[in-house]
Amino acid sequence: MPLPALPADNTARFRVNYTVGGEPHDFQIRSTPISPVAIGVAALDFLNALSPALNALVVNTVEFAPSGSSVFNIVTTGIEGSTVGSGAGTGSARANYVDFIGRSSGGRRVRLAVFGLKIDATDYRFIAGENAAVDAAIVELNTHTGAFLAIDGVAPQWYSYANAGVNAHWQKAVRP
Fold first, then answer.
1. What is the pLDDT of residues 48-93, one digit of tens each?
2. Do the domain assignments include residue 23?
3. Beta strand ranges found along the chain (DSSP E)
4. Which residues contact 76 (CB under 8 A, 6 or more apart)?
5. What crossing angle do the helices spanning 132-143 and 36-50 adopt, rounded to 10°?
6. Residue 164 near residue 49 (C-beta atoms within 8 A)
7. Domain presence at residue 4
8. What is the count of structural domains for the chain?
């Protein structure tokens, strides 16, 4: 039997807005009530670990919405303006992403996708040991237990693999 749905604003959320390959993207981090600086450290540790697998990615802003609210406001975390990865990431690479998946002890699934993947996963999955940067990023997700929570507010166990893919929206945007 499926778990009942929880409201999207069930936890506090930070949204990291970034640019890669000239395109704006974001990812969301659910957290306990910790400081923006602590979230900045967690997000930058994660991105730095993944950096060898990414095209140049620039963190633009970070926004925060408290639990129970859908209003995001810009906060200062100290990572704004940070660049990770290398290379231009133009053309078809703009649609490439890596998707990390986990599950909380409450049974809630969690995902975190980052665009700008510059390497190919021949079978669209990086299993443990296949890519050092992906492995290091998974370690960071599991290390920062006050951040990277599932929707139920519980720290998930992140799977030992990550999926890769080509996003259909961005794939169509690249077409002439």
1. 999 999 999 999 999 999 999 999 999 999 999 999 999 987 776 7
2. yes
3. 12-20, 23-31, 57-65, 73-75, 83-84, 96-103, 109-115, 125-126, 157-166
4. 36, 62
5. 160
6. no
7. no
8. 1
CA distance 83 to 62: 14
Q: Which residues pair with 112 in a beta bridge?
A: 100
Distances (CA, A) of 59 to 88, 161, 174: 15, 25, 22
Is 1 domain-assigned?
A: no
CB atoms within 10 A of CB 116: 26
Residue 2 domain flag: no
Residue 155: CA atoms inside 13 Å, Cβ hemisphere, count?
9
Look up residue 49 and give its DSSP letter: H
**CA nearest neighbour of 102 among 141, 133, 50, 66:** 141
User: What domain range includes position 76?
Assistant: 12-174
pTM (predicted TM-score) = 0.93
Q: Are 145 and 30 in contact (CB under 8 A)?
A: no
